[in-house]
Write a sequence for this structure.
């Protein structure tokens, strides 16, 4: 299985039109999950802490993990972003952290995890979500067509095939958009811009593309690719009952 490359061009940022971001102080007490309803999406978030103590920061001090949990409240996949923010500068050099990813309904995921000092440190969190587009957006007139990339190590898509999809003989092709921040390396900020019509295949495609390695002559640009999930005939016949 190989990732199929179908389009090489600069694209618009996927989260350019998000619902309003909500930031909540959690200095004194961690809140229960907070529900959000934007113009185009519904989601919820909360920060949880565990009791595992490690040494972190500069100078070293006792820290525990803080995790931003984001939950999908819709019946379609969402592309979500989240951030943990701290007073800057702070006594132990704890940095802000952020991440983005796809959440399949009706699930939730740890969007951001950071080691933090005790709760007297001021901690804020934020999140925003938008639905995954089901059709490809119009190409910008200013697209740079001479920028290109090559895949130097393609992912083994077979390893990422969702077991439930395989058992149900579900196949499809998911179109992805991503950033190549360096001349050589992995894709970042991977999002679905045209669905395979199967949420689990979409999510698996995002994960699979994250294992690919690339070269590009235009670093810092957005590119597009497609990954096909298909079941080989010998696999299909092996699962068929004898006649």
């Amino acid at each position: 299985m190989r990732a199929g490359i179908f389009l090489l061009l600069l694209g618009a940022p996927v989260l350019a039109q998000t619902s309003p971001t909500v930031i909540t102080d959690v200095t004194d007490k961690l809140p229960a999950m907070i529900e959000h309803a934007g113009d185009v999406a519904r989601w919820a978030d909360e920060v949880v802490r565990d009791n595992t103590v490690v040494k972190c920061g500069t100078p070293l001090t006792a820290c525990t993990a803080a995790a931003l949990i984001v939950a999908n409240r819709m019946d379609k996949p969402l592309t979500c972003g989240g951030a943990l923010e701290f007073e800057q500068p702070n006594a132990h050099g704890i940095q802000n952290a952020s991440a983005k990813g796809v959440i399949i309904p009706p699930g939730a995921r740890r969007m951001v995890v950071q080691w933090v000092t005790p709760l007297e440190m001021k901690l804020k969190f934020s999140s925003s979500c938008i639905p995954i587009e089901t059709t490809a957006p119009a190409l910008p007139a200013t697209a740079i067509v001479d920028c290109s990339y090559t895949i130097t190590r393609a992912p083994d898509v077979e390893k990422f095939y969702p077991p439930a999809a395989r058992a149900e003989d579900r196949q499809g092709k998911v179109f992805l958009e991503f950033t190549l921040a360096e001349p050589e390396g992995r894709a970042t900020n991977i999002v679905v811009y045209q669905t395979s019509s199967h949420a689990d295949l979409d999510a698996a495609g995002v994960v699979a593309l994250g294992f690919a390695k690339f070269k590009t002559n235009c670093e810092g640009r957005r590119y597009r690719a497609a990954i096909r999930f298909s079941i080989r005939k010998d696999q299909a016949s092996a699962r068929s009952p004898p006649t």
